[in-house]
Prior knowledge:
single chain, 0% strand, mainly alpha
Amino acid sequence: ISNNGSLPPGTMFLNGRAPGDIGFDPLNLSQDPDALRRFELAELKHARLAMIGLGGMLHQMLLTKQAPLEQLANFKALS
């Protein structure tokens, strides 16, 4: 583990490690600092959109009492 076993939030990032950084970069995408910042921002944006999408799917399931794929199979277009 890249955090050397430090699990408490107070000590986990003392050595300069960023949240989500586990040292896995096989394509060396982090060599350019500007590109790295752009990739980090894109990752945050995509994660937030995924959370919003999941929330929408859960609300749809709670309101219709059908799973999203089940509702898609029973879809009837308005005409």
